[in-house]
TrEMBL record, chain A:
Organism of provenance: Saccharibacillus sacchari
Annotated protein name in UniProt: UvrB/UvrC motif-containing protein
Superkingdom, taxonomy of origin: Bacteria
From TrEMBL, chain B:
Organism: Saccharibacillus sacchari
Name of the molecule in the record: Protein arginine kinase
Top EC category: transferase
Keywords: Kinase, Transferase
The enzyme's E.C. designation: 2.7.14.1
Length: 174, 354
């Protein structure tokens, strides 16, 4: 079979594309595939973890909207390094730390699928991370306070309440 | 002689130590990924920006030297191609740093148990390698190094996402903890497949000894955590430790069952391999790895005397293609490498018996 694009070389790639429920079969040669920018697993550099990741992102898009990538999503980009969301989807890696901010509401499903969670609970830098440390301690105390109140242990609860006030005061004075 | 110490010996000083359960766990490794807040990740950084990163990180390591101890900074572009690959074969840098990174550098501690890679996929990758089963110790060292560097570097950190990394698979803790395990008995008894699939179901992953995409050689497997976000560093290390303790136990059971049920066959296999390694004139890398695995098992079972396991660790690295070239100082084709490899193994094994 000849390549349906150039009609010259033999077609070596055969695949089915399903876009918006419409099925299309392709029989093309590798060169035309590359020129058309088709992403084909197993060719040109192999199938990497990053292709897999971008697969996740495509999947999420397909679930939400009827057109694979909306024009809006294509234009979304990081104002710091200029990486577009479309690029990120393709290579599966961020360009700079600000990408996380600009693509924030898009990446939850991806993170959930890769890690199970979306929120960091580990180490915090000593500098610049102090606020978060306060917040974590306050949150933990508040939860304990709630439990004590439910158990009607009001004396301990009062101590906890004071401790929380102290911490909040300390934080605001920083 | 090279001005860089790492090319002199195959065995990093850290590998001479033994560590816990070192008959089964060869080494433990922890790496943490960090990035500078103000500069784009290496993937999109210009050469100039990458150069800035390199300068800043090397400078920070210099300033932190009281905590870090004596370190040597090695810009990779000042090395020959062979020396770069030697760094990879000694597992001091990743293949990506050696082959694909611009303005790459590595900062090495004297005993080579600590290496800080600069401009890999992330700006900074702190790696600690310890002999035997010492993931916790490796993590404690790595996090201390992280603290020391942080005093001089503004890290990219977000309250919700944690340490920000180029690849979303590393975000959060940026921590990848791994152990290299020698599991010949589980392979021989065909239990390895079951173990490996069980491992992948608890959020861990298995790779060959040179990391992502590399094949398992000589029954050596690298097991590491997959998840970096939503678990604390302690949970990650605990989880890995807990699973590895069980795998060690399975491997020990499989070994004693093999010895119980087919001792003479196992003995034959070990001694054949020992015979081949001490007499062969040509051996390829794959066979060498397999035979060395058999001999290691023989040493563990007390069948081969006077052969330190550190020598076997050393041979695993010495027989890698680029290290061979480094040792014999010649460019060689594959069949010449196979000859030199056989010669080197023979010499070392015979010498150790004298």
């Amino acid at each position: 079979m000849l390549c349906q694009e150039c009609q010259q070389r033999p077609a070596t790639l055969h695949f089915t594309k399903i876009i918006n429920g419409e099925k299309n079969e392709f029989h093309i040669c590798e060169q035309c595939a590359r020129e058309k920018g088709e992403m084909i697993p197993g060719t040109s550099g192999g199938f990497s973890i990053h292709n897999l990741l971008s697969g996740f992102l495509d999947f999420d898009m397909a679930g939400k909207t009827h057109t694979g990538g909306t024009p809006q999503a294509q234009q979304l980009h990081c104002e710091e390094c200029g990486m577009t969301y479309a690029q990120f989807r393709k290579i599966g890696r961020f360009g700079c730390s600000s990408c996380y901010k600009y693509f924030d509401d898009k990446i939850d499903p991806l993170l959930k699928r890769v890690h199970g969670g979306t929120v960091h609970v580990g180490k915090v830098p000593k500098r610049g991370g102090a606020d978060l440390q306060f917040q974590r301690e306050i949150d933990a105390l508040k939860q304990e306070l709630q439990e004590r109140i439910e158990k009607q242990e009001f004396e301990t609860a009062a101590q906890l309440r004071d401790r929380i006030r102290d911490l909040e005061l300390q934080r605001s004075q920083r | 002689m090279s001005e860089f110490a790492f090319t002199e010996h195959a065995l990093s000083t850290w590998m001479r130590g033994e560590g816990q359960d070192s008959d089964i766990v060869i080494s433990s490794r922890v790496r943490i990924a960090r990035n500078l807040r103000s500069l784009p990740f290496p993937l999109v950084a210009s050469e100039e920006q990458a150069g800035q990163v390199r300068e800043l990180v090397i400078e920070a390591a210099e300033q932190a030297k009281e905590d870090l101890g004596p370190m040597q900074s090695v810009p990779l572009d000042e090395l020959s191609e062979i020396d770069r690959q030697v760094l990879v074969e000694k597992r001091l840098v990743s293949p990506m740093l050696a082959n694909e990174s611009q303005e790459a550098a590595v900062v090495l501690s004297e005993d080579e148990s600590l290496s800080i890679m600069v401009n890999e996929e992330d700006h900074i990758r702190i790696q600690c390698l310890y002999p035997g089963f010492q993931v916790r110790q490796a993590w404690e060292r790595a996090t201390a190094v992280d603290d020391s560097l942080e005093a001089y570097i503004d890290y990219a950190f977000d309250d919700r996402r944690g340490y920000l990394t180029s690849c979303p698979t590393n975000v959060g803790t940026g921590l990848r903890a791994s152990v290299m395990i020698h599991m010949p008995a589980l392979v021989m008894t065909h239990q390895i497949g079951r173990i490996l699939s069980a491992v992948s179901q608890v959020g861990l992953t298995v790779r060959g000894i040179y990391g992502e995409g590399s094949e398992a050689q000589g029954n050596l497997f690298q097991i590491s955590n997959q998840i970096t976000l939503g678990q604390s560093e302690k949970e990650i290390v605990d989880n890995l430790e807990g699973i590895v303790v069980q795998i060690i136990e399975y491997e020990r059971q499989a070994r004693s069952r093999l010895v119980g049920e087919s001792k003479i066959r196992l003995y034959d296999r070990v001694m054949r391999s020992y015979g081949i390694l001490t007499h062969a004139a040509i051996i390829d890398g794959k066979e060498a790895a397999q035979r060395l695995s058999d001999v290691r098992l023989g040493v563990d079972l007390g069948w081969i005397d006077g052969l330190p396991t550190t020598l076997l660790n050393e041979l695993t690295i010495l027989t890698q293609p680029h290290f061979l070239q480094k040792t014999f100082g010649a460019t060689m084709n594959t069949s010449e490498k196979d000859m030199y490899r056989a010669q080197l193994i023979r010499d070392r094994l015979v010498k150790s018996k004298e």
